[in-house]
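Observation: inputs received (chain + 6-O-phosphono-alpha-D-fructofuranose).
Thought: call the complex predictor directly.
Action: predict_structure
Action Input:
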Amino acid sequence: MPNSQMTFRQFLMQADGGKPVAGDLAFLLEDIVTACRLVSDHIRNGAFANVLGSSESTNIQGETQKKLDVIADEEFMRHCANSGRVAALVSEEVDDVHWLKEKPEAGDYLVYFDPLDGSSNVDVNLSVGSIFSIVQLAEAVTPSPEAVLRKGTEQVCAGYAIYGPSTGLVLTLGHGVHGFTQDLGTGEFLLTQPDMTVPATTSEYAINTSRAELWEAPVRRYIDECVAGKNGVRGRTFNMRWTASMVADVHRILTRGGVFLYPMDSGNASTGGKLRLMYEANPMGMIIEQAGGAASTGRARIMEVQPEGHHQRVPVILGSKDEVALIDSYHA
Ligand code: P6P
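Observation:
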């Protein structure tokens, strides 16, 4: 029985509020999906191609690059460069902005991506992902570091691939959030989770509790109240999940609710947090908000943060909106 679900191409033909997505953006998205498909193949065949483990290099984050980090970055760089309307690429793995055009025009795209997020999980066969964010230039710009410092509210598209038990793709173009699953036979991404929504309430939180001694008081208060369970002020028991892979944690929250916290703490305050604004917090923030959730630094809406650098880090609290609102109220 052929799959009855819509293919990615068919989805794009009606994804702009029932109308086809603009051709240039559709081509770019199909190039990004091709890159994700190839990254998935590299991961699943990694053990046979000597691409697991670490490379000899480190990235601007000061992190030792996994071999697959470098390979995934190369796939994104190569495929996003296909489109004549991509002006610049910003990658977690590359220090400088990669400009593709000397004279970027109105309507061109800026693409920000984390080509392999959570890559430390690859060697232990846990879910990892690729995260991408697209901004469209409203006017021509001169290539400069400042030209890519766009607020999350300027995104026209955000998405991620998740390389887990199945290879999935989640995407928003500003008209809700839609999930696809790769059919391994054809390689096609088929629409399997249309209109994903985050339940407003939850009893599940995700945080790296090994950093508890570093937390600020509002975060400590929130987590202590969750741990206190039904005999505490929350009056119910909570569950905790932490996969050390943002894509996997966000996908779980999109699918069944929850709240994800990577807050600023005394250990990362000097860098403003751990997660990166342009290619982790902003795209995930757009996805979560489009699904009816909230995404905050604890003190401001993530997508309103004015970037000061394309590798800038921010605190991230996102997911079920009632929980995010409560955590924000503790920060106030
Ligand atoms: P920790 C992965 O390195 C990552 O950027 C996110 O995917 C993940 O949520 C976080 O860092 C994990 O951080 O401190 O638990 O290793």
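Thought: report the result.
Final Answer: The two ends are 55 Å apart (CA to CA). Residues 8-193 form a domain with the Fructose-1,6-Bisphosphatase; Chain A, domain 1 fold (CATH 3.30.540.10).
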